[in-house]
Amino acid sequence: MSDKDSKVEKKQISILGCGWLGFPLAQRIQSLHSTWQIKGSTTSVAKINTFVENRIEGYLLPLNPTFDVESAKLHSFFNVDTLIISLPPRLHKHEPRFYVKQIDAVISEIRNSRIRDIIFISSTGIYPELNRIVMEQDVKTPEESASPDMVTAENLLTALRPDRNVTILRLGGLLGYNRIPGKYVQGQKDMATGSIPVNYIHRDDAAGMIITILETGIVNETFNIVAPIHTTRREVYETSCAQFGWETPTFADSNIKPDFKVISGAKFDHHYKYDFKFPDPLKFYYSLEDHSA
């Protein structure tokens, strides 16, 4: 048993959506807290063996938009004290509000379970470009949001309070490892958004901040999760392309400044103590290797 395990109550945690963020999060939890029980869901049969190799109980749980698996398997997955929901919203061309229906299905299972603590991975993409520093209270309703379905999902989950503790984490642009910003813009011409400040978070820090919450205690709050330095897109793209030898994009000269937002992470800093591994997006760690689960 590690020193941390002796100080922190043993937990049983299920990660719904054990993918690009959820899988390394599960690995890191296991390395820090060897006595904690970790379960992870996937929609890929091929990933189950990878989970087992990493001491993660793997569950094949398709959600389209409801669960289509036997009740015993669902009961086992949700039979924990803590649930982390890491389901990126995906548009469904045949079914409007597909993501909201997925979250509704998850909530039905939560209500029938013993889960008491919930972390929901949301996104700073819900904020419109307000041309200023943006705080958590700036968006509370779908009507205020650039992503109304995501806010609807947040509100459905926070309605579980006070019977359950629900923390909402609005993550900035999730980068690191093989998610390299320059890869997506190399060779582009006359980009108009070079002056916009970025709101990024490295995957290692996203996982680290989630673990800090698990260790310290889940609270009924919403937090922005972003690196504290907001350099410009141009600087990020140029640095990234130079690192990997890609053609640097060019940027249009314009007197018209594009709309922007600077996401504040001050609220998280007030509630929790966390030292960023990568506070500066210009110094994020990247690799061309495949780092998916």
UniProtKB/TrEMBL annotation:
Domain of life: Bacteria
SUPFAM superfamilies: NAD(P)-binding Rossmann-fold domains (SSF51735)
Protein known as: NAD-dependent dehydratase
Organism: Dyadobacter fanqingshengii
